[in-house]
Amino acid sequence: MNVEKPGSQSVNRYRMMKKKLTDLGVYEIGMGLEEMTCIAKACDIDMSNDKFSTSATAGSTSSLPKKDRSYSYKLVGAIMKRKLSEHGMYENKMTTEQMKQLLHIKRVKKFESTENTIYDRMSEILKTGKFSDVILDIRGTELKAYKMALSVQSPVFLAMFDNQQMKEAKENRVVIEDIDIEVAKQMLEFVNTNDKPSGIDEYALDLLSVAHKYEMTRLKLLCEKSLVENINVNNAIKCLVHANTYGSETFIKAIVEFMSLNPSLLISDEFKRLKEKDPMFSIKIYADVLESIGLTEL
């Protein structure tokens, strides 16, 4: 936006108009004298009237005569309603304070809109593989990656690349045999964007084990969230098995809560197999589910 710099003869008028529009909540940084004049006319603000002089509006509209204050408040409400409506933010029966709050949030967000710009641009480059400095060898398939991005997300990779005596640090190549290529791609998507991978719902269980192996705390949390959101009677015990090995206590409690609503899972074939494999853990889950539904025995 081009800012019109007021001449010496219009400085007072510029300041007065800026003050008035600011009081009404419609002034925006960078407005010039001509633009403020147009807004004043559009809003029927008579800037030549004494009631809108800088002395009359200093601090707030409380110094205006009662009749003028009433007019001013109505005008403020109309202007705020119009501005919010333009952005699809106005809702029926909004109070003046609610509208002021929304406009304030909108103004603040203007300064937040560029916060992640650099990271977003960097993520776009990371996803292309351009300037990559390490290769992930996934069962013979090569994926380009970045030591910095991997190290930021994983203390395991950080220690690997930080030690120049490590083979991976010397050769700029990490051989991984226990992860499928699609799972590895999902892991890299997370590493490069710091956001949930596009296929997390499909690969959540596998990604949970990857997150555990490389100590990727955020990826682990995203996987657990996806699994809890998509839990059902067909996958609950499988989730429980993974939770016992790779998950958090919060994840286990969420599964127990689901099982308490579906207690027949305690006599399912999958749970019987879990009891054979890990009797101590299955007994604890059994007791937790019964306690959750208020029973002492099934």
From TrEMBL:
SUPFAM superfamilies: POZ domain. This is BTB domain-containing protein. Residues 132-195 form the BTB domain. It comes from Aphidius gifuensis. InterPro entries: BTB/POZ_dom, SKP1/BTB/POZ_sf. Gene3D superfamilies: Potassium Channel Kv1.1, Chain A. It comes from the Eukaryota.
